[in-house]
Amino acid sequence: MNEVVRYERDGAVAHIVLDRPPLNAYDARMRWELEVAWRRAAGDTDARVVVLRAEGKHFCAGADLKNPGEPAPPDATPMRAWEQMTFVRNLAKPTIAVVQGACVGGGQAFAFPCDLIFCSDDAFFRDPLIEMGVGGIHSPIHVWLYGPRLAKEMLFSGQSVPARRLYEMGAVNRVCPREELLVDAVAYAKEIADHDADALHQAKRSVDLTMDIMGQHSIEGRFAEALEQSWQPPAGPTSTE
Fold first, then answer.
1. CA distance linking residue 236 with residue 150, whole number of Å
2. How far is Cα 156 from Cα 10, in angstroms, rounded to an integer?
3. Under 8 Å between Cβ of 5 and 34
4. Distance in angstroms (rounded) separating the CA atoms of residues 30 and 227
5. The CATH number of the domain where 40 resides is what?
6. How many structural domains compose the chain?
7. What is the pLDDT of residues 61-93, one digit of tens each?
8. Averaged pLDDT, 93-120
9. What is the DSSP string of 2-62?
10. Which residues, at least 6 apart from 12, have a Cβ–Cβ distance to it below 8 Å?
11. What pLDDT digit, counting tens, does each position of 185-237 carry?
12. Structural domain includes residue 236
């Protein structure tokens, strides 16, 4: 069986590649392979920077509700998802998410924990759960990445927000033509990989610690705990529109 998440390395830059055609919508297997890849990146002493990217038109169209594959394991809960995001966030290496096309629903949680987000000019972010009768699974994360008012706008309407708008708000780092996106991200990754690894870790940790003092980690964890008590998976079609 072919991998749907690949791990590759180009010198000091590791690549974690989502490759589940046609939309990179995730199932339980993809989430498991992604976790394995992140742990491999953490243990790869030759990898100084990690790039998360995806093949195809879209970064991730959310959960695959049409072809879900194998049943989700019993621990596929909000708390488990939060623990996986925390692992990525705390990785002692800079991480860059490269987002093209759709970044929808739970697919946002793949990009959220990365230190930087580079987007194509046709990228958009969307949380459609309100259309399924589910509200605010990722609410605290939305608040930190998008700010409270845009978070509510997204969660209330389920509408897409273009990467260009997020760039203007400082929520993503760069927006460029799709054909330049990966080249730009890899060039930046290689540039920072030349810096001292301990200095990079210290710089990353100083920012994250500041966010923790402001309450990010605690609030997200408490929300995941509360949500898990009443959690039931949503039902409905996956859409990138």
1. 24
2. 42
3. yes
4. 23
5. 3.90.226.10
6. 1
7. 998 987 766 655 555 566 677 788 889 999 999
8. 96
9. --SEEEEEETTEEEEEE--TTT--B-HHHHHHHHHHHHHHHH-TT--EEEEEESSS-SB-S
10. 46, 47, 48, 49, 190, 193, 194
11. 999 999 999 999 999 999 999 999 998 898 877 777 777 777 676 655 544 44
12. no
pLDDT for residue 241 is more than 50: no
Task: Look at the chain and count its residues.
Answer: 241
Element (H, E) at 224: helix 216-229
Burial of 94 (0-12, 13-18, 19+ CB in 10 A): buried
Q: Which two tokens stand for residue 8?
A: 């590759």
Range of the domain at 145: 5-181+188-199+209-229
Residue 138 or 36, more confident: 36
> Considering the entire predicted model, what is its pTM?
0.89
Question: Peptide bond preceding 94: is omega within 30 degrees of 0, i.e. cis?
Answer: no
Residue 71 CA to its chain's centroid (Å): 22
Alpha-carbon dihedral sign for residues 175, 129, 156, 86: negative
With respect to residue 70, please indicate whether it lies within any of the assigned structural domains.
Answer: yes
Work out the burial of residue 206: count CB atoms within 10 Å of its CB; fewer than 13 is exposed, 13-18 middle, 19 or more buried.
exposed
Per-residue pLDDT tens for 1-37? 689 999 999 999 999 999 999 999 999 899 999 999 9
Q: Is residue 77 part of a domain?
A: yes
Q: Tell me the average pLDDT across 44-64.
A: 96
- Which tokens belong to 2? 């072919």
User: Does residue 155 lie in a domain region?
Assistant: yes
Cα-Cα end-to-end distance for the chain: 30
